[in-house]
Amino acid sequence: MDKLTIFVALTGIAVALQAGVLLAMFLVLRATSSKLESLATEVKTKVLPVVDQTQTMLIEVRPKVERVAEDVREATTTIRGQIERTDAAINDVVDRARLQIIRADELLTRTMDRVEHASDTVHKTVMSPMRQISGLMQGITVGLEFLFSRRGRENGNRRERRPVPQDEMFI
């Protein structure tokens, strides 16, 4: 056999093999194409209506969401203003309470000073004269006891002098 015949036979086999591969590729692509077409049909029938509904719902909900966002902004502004007013009121109450506490402290201090002054005045005007009178009375008592005890000794009756206790003083 000649080389040319072998070459032509081999080329024929290669072309036939290529044709088989191309036929197999065609059959696989056709099967895949039919599966893709059925998948595309399924997507069109199931997914696209959901996408359309979602888009419609977003169009309907968007103004409501914007309104809610605006309401939240307004509520935040209102709440912030209320908090500022409440803070100012609390600060005012605290300041007033502080002033009242200072006034009460001053009043209590003045009252205590007056009580102390009154106590000193009572001590000076009542207690000092009472001590002087008590001292005078003790002096008179001692003098009288001394005088009477002398007469008693002269009469033979000896009496002992009684001490006057200091604890019985008027306080």
Describe the structure.
There is one protein chain. By secondary structure, this protein is mainly α. Helices cover 89% and strands 0% of the residues. It has one helix and no strands. The mean pLDDT is 86.
How are the secondary structure elements laid out?
Elements: H1 3-154
Helix content: over 70%
Major sheet:
none
Order of helices and strands: H
Total strand count, please?
0
**Mean pLDDT across all residues, rounded?**
86
How many helices?
Answer: 1
| Proportion in β-strands | under 5%
Keyword list:
89% helix, mainly alpha, 171 residues, single chain
Outline of this structure?
The chain has 171 residues and is mainly alpha-helical.
